From TrEMBL:
Residues 33-324 form the GH18 domain. Residues 1-19 form the signal peptide. One of its GO terms (biological process) is carbohydrate metabolic process. This is GH18 domain-containing protein. SUPFAM superfamilies: (Trans)glycosidases. It comes from Ramularia collo-cygni. Residues 333-354 are annotated as: Disordered. Keywords: Signal.
Length: 416
């Protein structure tokens, strides 16, 4: 009798599992491991229309995408996705394909902010630094109109911690706990050094950003840490490990890497190097590893050796995350990938967590020669678009500008 009931129960379980639609299965999977891509350029490298559909058609293991970048402009209600309104007909194909991805269980989200300044000061320009409804209400309508499932706050200008905290609380209140909330700090902002571009302490934010209706009681589902442009090094697990040692759960830290050297100032590595880093982090953290996000999709893998199609790059990352391996994975993983996008040796910064190949090595060297730390110098150069004189002023070294320029001349002369 017991065997009869057990057999019937197993049959019922098998029927139930196989009857779950693919999108629901993917949705459940996405709550754990994830493969994430930013999409900002909506054309191919040859100038044609970029299609998002290969992300699911080619079984890349994609779970989340960020359509980037959303900007809140000076006139209330003037919101642009890059250079056009999200409602512009130019984006009709994007919304059509995004809906198809959603039917397959992929979470379609947006990234807001980035290098362009002004979005967050405007949103937080209400009474006493609170939410300004004139800017916030159109943002909320945009998210609802296009059925966006999450928002990534990429804050690259100094603002008080009260601003992201207010936004997180309000978005959670208005859109509910299933709406995914993430932030995109530079990796060093999450390490014990806690130096970056946002102007506030992320541990302070994370301590205050709590909600009983969110996973682990945290308003921020996870952090997309930028491991490039000098803020981190994707060729080694050291920087990621230092973030986890600083108190962040591995499940809430996603390693952000460049998918093509043309998409960032420095810090790109080939897929073979990223695969080794992923393997090391998977071995250390297992299913708790927060995974990888690539910037960005349109030209991903084009500079790898051998060159990859964009969906192939995503698929290889996804296979590293979800454990599937193929002959092509092993072949590419064994080839040289050219190291980083500059002159530094692959893995050269393994013993210095949170420090990677920088966009302005000579300028940074001059500032460090005057006693400035690497990350402080990098932040000043970033905020001044690589202007040594302005960076020196930011650092209180204005009176030493002449000496700094002499130092730069010496470096250039040595190279020549």
């Amino acid at each position: 009798m017991f065997l009869h009931h057990l057999t019937a129960l197993l049959a019922l379980l098998i029927t139930t599992v196989t009857s779950i639609p693919a999108d629901q299965q993917l949705s459940k999977r996405a709550n754990g491991a994830r493969t994430v891509m930013y999409i900002q350029t909506f054309r191919t490298t040859s100038g044609g229309k970029l299609s998002l559909l290969p992300l699911t058609q080619q079984k890349t293991h994609i779970t989340h995408i960020y359509l980037s970048a959303l900007h809140i402009n000076s006139q209330p209600g003037d919101i642009t996705l890059n250079d056009h309104s999200p409602n512009d007909p130019i984006y009709n194909p994007v919304w059509s394909e995004a809906a198809q991805l959603q039917k397959q269980g992929v979470k379609v989200m947006m990234m807001m902010g980035g290098a362009a300044k002004g979005t967050y000061p405007r949103l937080c320009s209400g009474p006493n630094g609170g939410i300004n409804e004139a800017y916030y209400t159109p943002l909320l309508q945009t998210l609802r109109t296009h059925k966006i499932q999450g928002l990534d706050l990429d804050i690259e200008e100094p603002i008080p911690v009260s601003c992201p905290l207010a936004l997180l609380r309000r978005l959670n209140k208005d859109l509910g706990p299933s709406f995914i909330l993430t932030l995109a700090p530079v990796a060093s902002d999450l390490t014990p050094r806690e130096i970056g571009l946002s102007g506030f302490n992320y541990k302070d934010l994370d301590r205050q950003a709590v909600a009983p209706n969110k996973p682990n009681g945290k308003l921020v589902n996870w952090y997309n840490a930028q491991f490039y442009n000098g803020w981190g090094d994707g060729s080694s697990p050291a920087g990621y490990n230092s973030i986890i040692a600083n108190g962040y759960a591995a499940s809430r830290v996603v390693m952000g890497v460049l998918a093509n050297p043309n998409d960032g100032g420095s810090g790109w590595y080939g897929i073979a190097t990223y695969s080794r880093t992923i393997a090391a982090l998977k071995a250390k953290y297992g299913g708790d590893f927060g995974s990888v996000v690539g910037w960005e999709f349109w030209d991903a893998g084009e500079r790898d050796s051998p060159a990859l199609r964009n969906w192939e790059w995503v698929k290889m990352v996804g296979q590293g995350i979800f454990g599937a391996r193929s002959g092509r994975d092993l072949l590419v993983g064994s080839d040289g990938d050219g190291g980083g996008s500059g002159s530094s040796t692959e893995g050269a910064n393994q013993d210095v967590p949170g420090v990677g190949e920088v966009p302005w090595p000579d300028l940074l060297s001059v500032l460090m020669g005057k006693g400035v730390s690497d990350l402080e110098g990098l932040r000043a150069l970033n905020r001044t678009d690589g202007d040594l004189t302005k960076a020196a002023d930011l650092l209180g070294l204005g009176e030493l500008v002449g000496d700094l320029l002499d130092g730069l001349t010496d470096i250039v002369g040595g190279i020549l």
